[in-house]
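Task: encode each sequence below as structure tokens.

Item 1
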Amino acid sequence: MADDTSRKRTVRGTKIRASREQKEGRKAKKKLARTASSVGERNGDSPLSDPDDVVPEPFVETDAVRSLRDRINGWLEADQPVHLIGPTGCGKTALALSAAAERGRPVVWLNGDESVDTAALVGSHAGGERYEEHDRYVSGVDKKTQIVRERWVDNPLSVAVREGATLVYNEFSRSDPAAHNVLLSVFEEGVLERPGKRGEDRTIDVHPEFRAILTSNDVEYAGVHEQQDALLDRFIGVHVDYYDDETEREIVGAHVDLSADDIAAIVAKTRALRDELEIVVGTRAAITAAQGVAVFDGHDGDGEFDDETLTHVFTDVLAPKVAGEDGDDIDDLRTRIGETI
């Protein structure tokens, strides 16, 4: 009788140990699932940004800026993706971020270039995660089972459409058009397909609050790709040009500590160079020139701007646009700037 009781207790103890191992295995599976699903949010690397954190600083709001931003947000409210097109240095990116922040939804930022492909937009497999289950159901026997689960990492587009964020896709036209095929189903059918993802999670239903703002330079710029007509037909194209004189003065004054008269003079000369030169002379060039004047003190003894100093400053600011050819191009640029100033 004693032997039978001992045997039953041993069996019961084995079952208890086996039950604990199974429970630990289930916990490990759940932990693995949580880890895989939140991989994009670990270590602070989530692409989601709070709208208040993306507002450009400083950002100037004049009637011209507000009117353009209201136009953009009106199209977004009509559930239309907006494509901002214009010359470099005219403030497209700052305008896009301001419009995105005004929606009050999370913002996802994406910068286009030649390396952007479909995986960079939607996500890809990022290796696997492995753990072991130990089965000791039979006393004295340890059976090990290795379980491997592939880890998928969502990239900006997947996160934006799932969370209902505003996607700001900067330099959209610098990416290969083939990478943008996935956008067709997003804007037309409200579904994002994730190539490489298997099972029921292969597609994501687009959140009703998802919106997109894209920025591109004009087509004549180097490195700009022509995108497929089927996609462009689904965008609203808003052309962004250089702002009026008042707005440019406000923008430069927000970045540089100079007198109002000095800022007005620099903006006036920038606008004159814009009309005279074949290269792009944007608002960003005016800001940089003003910063140069503040450092090098481009005033003569009478408190007026020294034309020679201004010529050197503007030549340094604009020289990268003609550099790489030969020295004569820089000399010619300096001459033409001096004549205009």
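Item 2
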Amino acid sequence: MAITVAVVDDHPAILAGVRAWYACTDPPIEVVAAGDSVKCAWIPPGDTADVVVLDLNVDNTVTSHHGTVRRLVDAGRKVIVYTMQDSEEIALSCVELGVHAFLTKAEGEEHLVSATIAAAQDRPYVAPALAGAMAANRLPHFPQLSEREYEVLTLWFQCESKQMVADRLDITTRTVGTYLDRIRVKYANVGRPAPTKAALLARAIQDGIVDVDDL
């Protein structure tokens, strides 16, 4: 089954290029909506797309991207920010808001296609620009994780599902979920909430729990 995407960008060449990149992928990726306003992500068939690829330059969202991204994420949309903005602050704030990936347009076809497939499969994707922002933003408030919590967290980033983690550790998926919930509570308690898998991955990279090269 094809992955469906809504692409929000105000540059016709970018829209044409993204369509061309997606046209030759495996699994197939179909652009079902495209336009220069975030409205196209909500209008059918855009509101049924698996993934929303969002340029922060549309609808004046560079300086007010929080509201736009939050509305999409809160509605359950899987968002990839694809932008000319290379600010570490903007990249990290988008991850905090729950986007599946943050890419600069300089990172091109390979990363956008891979990130789109990962988002459709509910996996985080860390492109080089975001990896650099995460690594440069090591924060002093580390949660106290148990050895088992470290193990579950690391495996969860390396596996495609909680079931795979459970099989590796010979525990139930409910137990995996319990460990992850505890980890999220610990991060929230030190003032660093991580509500999504991508946000939790950002925290783990910042804290040196995992390395991008290990994923």
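Check on item 2: The first strand starts at residue 3 and ends at 8. The radius of gyration is 17 Å.
End of task.
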